[in-house]
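Moderator note: this is an archived Q&A kept for reference. The question asked for a predicted structure of one protein chain; the sequence and the answer are reproduced below.
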Amino acid sequence: MNRRHAVLLAVAVLTGPVAPARAAAQAGGKLPNIVVLATGGTIAGAAASDVQAAYTSGQVGVEQLLAAVPQAKKLAVLRGEQIANIGSQDMNDEVWLKLAVRINELLAMPDVDGVVITHGTDTIEETAYFLNLVVKSNKPVALTAAMRPSTALSADGPLNFYNAVAVAANKESAGRGVVVVVNDWVHGAASLTKTSTTAVQTFWSPLSGLMGTVAYGEVEYYRGPVGKHTTGSAFTVDKGTALPRVDIIMAHENMDGAMIDAAVAAGAKGVVIAGVGNGNMTAAAITTLAKHAKNGIVCVRSSRVATGRVGRNVEIDDDKNGFVASLALNPQKSRVLLRLALTQTKDPKQIQQYFDEY
């Protein structure tokens, strides 16, 4: 822990976690208006005991969440809306579009200063990246989550929620795109990924690093966002948007083309390969993938490896085969970008440009 964080922690212990908000109130500042959109997840989960691993997601409503962290009301004027109440393993296009449309409606209102979204950890990186590409405002949007249910001993949700409100209420958060606030860290939507099935410190931004930190409501930023986002994005959605099907297929030893063929037969307009190493796959898989690329299916090479970029034309001739290289995006975020890209074009050269820019 560095000296600054030690001082912040000491202040929090002495004065309580609402010290930054109290200082703002004493200075006569008007509290910002933040809308909380709840979607469920572990942060709204409940278990029969406070010391058991098993629990059910999405058991607590948004009003209960707000009531559980009264300190957050000294950071902002809060009101909540229940968008969904599901485990994020069940996140779907309907909820994504409902979220995006509602966020754009809210942020267009002059009396709304930012949005906080509560979400499950399983797919939060995909939802955050999707919103990062379709929200049309520079106002702050912060997602938060928890690894332990609300009933757990030492639940992490309340402080994560408090810190997310602090980030959304902070003027320096404007223009940074969609962020994810968990375990005192602020991640950019394009950079974070879940790395542990159960650990509280599950989220990391391995390639670009953290965007910032937040200690008991004190926000400190280190860098700006990666790639085009929000008001600089070419992508838009509305209630009637139909996102095309894109499937992810993991590469492995002795891989043939059967799963690729099956994805296309099922209606996939694009395929993302979670390749070995630098987005590689067997010769048989390359042959099958190239066949579909020539027939208009957009094929993206990503990697199942946890860190690193997938380079274009390194071991596989992407130009010859008509493939797209995912560059810094992992398979799940490659799928998000490809689905939105396919609403604009099927040209792999243009889609590669999107991967370069986003």
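Archived answer notes: Residues 1-27 have pLDDT under 50 and may be disordered.
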